[in-house]
Design brief:
With about 425 residues, the protein is of the alpha+beta class. It contains eleven helices and 18 strands. Strands 1-2-6-3-7-16 form a six-stranded mixed beta sheet, with helices on both faces. Strands 4-5-18-17 form a four-stranded antiparallel beta sheet, with no helix packed on it. The chain starts with a helix and ends with a helix.
């Protein structure tokens, strides 16, 4: 394979950088195993990327899960498929459990699905250069799933997996969770709470950062009613301003008063206004009838709200309610909120994990690791359990363009990220 040339390049870098690294014999053996077996690792990645596993492609999601399950069984993991209720129309989750004799219990998180359904434009695994390849989900997050498995294989080869307590949990609907969400994640949360540390293998942001925090996500819905009449009377005390002007006031005031707060974002994704407003929430679709000579009597807006803590979320909601309540003449507005994923806050425990990972990467010879910018990431599966145990995310593959056709993986960083994950898990549990 063309990958042999990459392995040689990586080995040269590895030899140079780790000449004085503080690694024990098992760690050195795990590091060598990763580089020696990158062809097999890449073949597993290629095979999984070339299976369409859009969230709603239930057969495809299960097929990817079966591929990973076979590898984990070889390592001594017990395999389960956790079914979701038929009403959720999802594939379910792959759970692999390894029972060791000592050490902290790790909860490793991946997901089998991608955003690319069978009718969406995304191609098979394709090498673009010695450092880059593309394919559906190659980065988010089949690259991360395979990195997790490859790291566990390295630990087995080093003789250290036998002692480790690990649950590897691959959800089947991370990109489009079954609803209600608390039902879709019930088993996930219950199992995580039996563990000590959670490690997420979502996309890495390079060799030198990791996610100690991720913003939460929630929704809001704004409805406005107003007096209607001939447009020649707009702005008068008798007619008022109409629903569309009221919506414009509210959204602009949101922007003025809340738009500069760090880590807080709020995005109106759908707006409909006019004389006859119809909205289908399930399809995120709306339509309206409106004439220019009629003051608009109704408007509707839906949006999201992202935040780094529950306090920030609740404070923002109160400010939004106050802004909505100050209606223009002739209009009346109401806003409601829905919870989605909670925030993964940058807790002291999470930051301690960053410090431990930093020691790993320095000993590997690849330099420091720091906590990345929480504003650069959205919510993920790990957010559901962050309140219960110490967590880190972003331990998977690096690359660009997640959720877009042409998504890429950084092939040169990939072996080093797998080594990083293997050594980190070893040190957390030894």
């Amino acid at each position: 394979m063309r990958y042999h040339r990459l392995i040689l390049q990586t080995l040269l870098i590895f030899t140079t950088l780790t000449a004085h690294a503080q690694l024990d014999a098992a760690e050195k053996k795990a590091m060598t195993f990763v580089t020696d077996h990158m062809d097999a690792t890449m073949q597993l990645l290629i095979n999984s990327v070339n299976i369409n596993s859009g969230t709603l492609n239930i057969a495809g999601v299960r097929k990817v899960g079966d591929l990973y399950a076979a590898e984990l069984q070889k390592l001594g993991f017990t395999i389960e498929w956790v079914a979701e209720p038929d009403s959720l129309h999802r594939a379910g989750h792959l759970v692999a459990t390894h029972k060791g004799r000592k050490g902290k219990k790790l909860f490793l998180i991946g997901h089998l699905d991608t955003v690319f359904e069978p009718d969406m434009p995304a191609g098979p695994y394709t090498v673009l250069s010695d450092s880059t390849a593309t394919g559906q989900g190659v980065n988010d997050m089949k690259g991360g799933d395979v990195a997790m498995i490859a790291a566990l294989q390295a630990l087995e080869a080093a003789g250290k997996l036998k002692d480790m307590n690990v649950i590897a949990y691959f959800t089947g609907d991370e990109e489009r969770s079954g609803s209600p969400h608390h039902v879709a994640r019930k088993d996930f949360i219950e199992r995580a709470r039996t563990c000590d540390i959670a490690l997420g293998f979502e996309s890495a942001m390079g060799l030198h950062t990791v996610a100690a925090a991720r913003r939460g996500a929630s929704g809001w819905s704004l409805d406005v009613t107003a007096r209607t009449g001939h447009s020649s009377q707009v702005f008068t005390d008798s007619a008022g301003f109409g629903a569309i002007y009221e919506v414009a006031r509210i959204l602009n005031t949101f922007r003025e008063q809340l738009g500069k707060e760090q880590y807080l974002t709020f995005n109106p994704g759908l707006i409909v206004g006019g004389s006859d407003v119809k909205v289908t929430n399930q399809d995120a679709r709306g339509e309206a009838l409106g004439k220019t000579n009629i003051i608009s009597p109704a408007a509707h807006v839906t949006g999201d709200l992202r935040f780094l803590s529950e306090t920030q979320k609740n404070n923002a909601r109160e400010k939004m309610k106050t802004i909505v309540a100050a209606s223009l003449t002739g209009a009346q507005s109401t806003i409601s909120f829905t919870d989605g994923l909670p925030a993964m806050e940058p807790t002291p425990g999470n930051l301690r994990l960053v410090a431990q990972l930093d020691k790993v990467t320095r000993d590997m010879g690849i330099g420091e690791t720091v906590a990345g910018d929480p504003g650069a990431r959205g919510a993920g599966d790990i957010s559901d359990i962050a309140q219960y145990l110490d967590c880190l995310d972003g331990l998977g593959a690096s690359g660009n363009g997640a959720h877009r056709a042409g998504e890429t993986i950084n092939l040169k960083e990939y072996p080093l990220l797998i080594q990083r994950a293997a050594l980190f898990m070893y040190r957390l549990t030894r």
